[in-house]
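ok posting inputs for the manganese (II) ion job
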Amino acid sequence: MTKTIAILPGDGIGPEIVTEAVKVLETLRDKFSLAIHLESGLVGGAAIDATGSPLPPATLDLAKRADAVLLGAVGGPKWESLDISIRPEKGLLGLRSELKLFANLRPVVLFPELASASTLKPEVVAGLDILIVRELTGDIYFGQPRGIRTLETGEKQGINTLVYTESEIERIARVAFASAEQRQKKLCSVDKANVLEATELWRQVVTRVSRDYPTVQLTHMYVDNAAMQLVRAPKQFDVIVTTNMFGDILSDLASQLTGSIGMLPSASLDANNKGMYEPIHGSAPDIAGQNLANPLATILSVAMLLRYSLNRVDLATAIERAVRQVLQAGLRTRDILGDGQYTVVTTREMGDAVVAQLRAQ
Ligand code: NAD
Ligand code: IPM
Ligand code: MN
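and the output
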């Protein structure tokens, strides 16, 4: 049966990188007979400009009816003065909560060819393969009350609320333990249980869930230490499970271990593996419209889409192999230059090179 994939390019470099990822999907459709139907929608600033809303009903409807969603990035300076409740980022957050995409998988894998592109010493990152499991629909991102209010003194007060319920913690913990069972069987839960009650509960629930996964070795770490350890000795980690905001910050930090944030894909899954797939980076306004962005994070997100939502591990592997071959051939966008002689390529040239490798397989 033909699968519908919603294509939501968004803002900034979003349309540029999604164009390359769509070329990859079209290659799979035309050359590998993958039965897919692509349908585009507006989200973020692009949707605000066209409709006044960052998540128009037509886009939400498309995302709900699709078998999977591919998203570029949202946001940019043009919309920064809008009220936070109607900014582009709300479109993305709305998709995550409406589709109940509570499990965000962010693999942090170093391609061996990029060891010298990392800002860390090659021996510190060689062989790096971490999976960050980020809770995605709770925490201070969605907690109530929130807002800016004026106190009796006339002074303004900004409020956000960090909340987690046991069931929210339990379901993300189960995703993380199940992932660890399939990997090196090590799970590090990252929290701030020494200060924040919501994450004290987090630690209790994760510990309770661990009894159902006796083969997985569970450790706990405070988030400040985890940030330091990720830079000091990142290979100590196998799977990391953490809260929405800590996961956001730690995954940007970890991306640099692999050479560039332009390399890291993600999958945001619901309880039935319906998913939205996007690079972990943003709309990169500083390089938007210049054909400079690295499209590989988005192309690798397509690989995750095939693996998790379309059950086509063979095609996911084919994409990952094609990316590896392109790197082996010495092609580099500017963000992943390391020591050595490389061919510096544009966004489009990188996408074309991946497609050419796929076609040759
Ligand atoms: P960003 O991730 O957009 O950019 C940070 C830096 O990384 C920039 O120097 C940028 O040029 C670089 N970079 C990012 N992606 C790259 C790529 N593919 N290739 C090469 N270089 C790349 O983060 P920011 O600047 O803090 O945010 C910009 C906008 O994006 C904001 O509006 C923010 O809210 C939004 N944002 C959106 C998402 C998303 O849609 N998922 C994620 C993060 C930030
Ligand atoms: C991400 C982004 C988003 C987040 C923003 C744009 C809402 O930084 O996907 O990592 O904070 O989750
Ligand atoms: Mn982020």
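notes: Residues 248, 252 surround manganese (II) ion (ligand 3) (CB under 6 Å). The mean pLDDT is 97.
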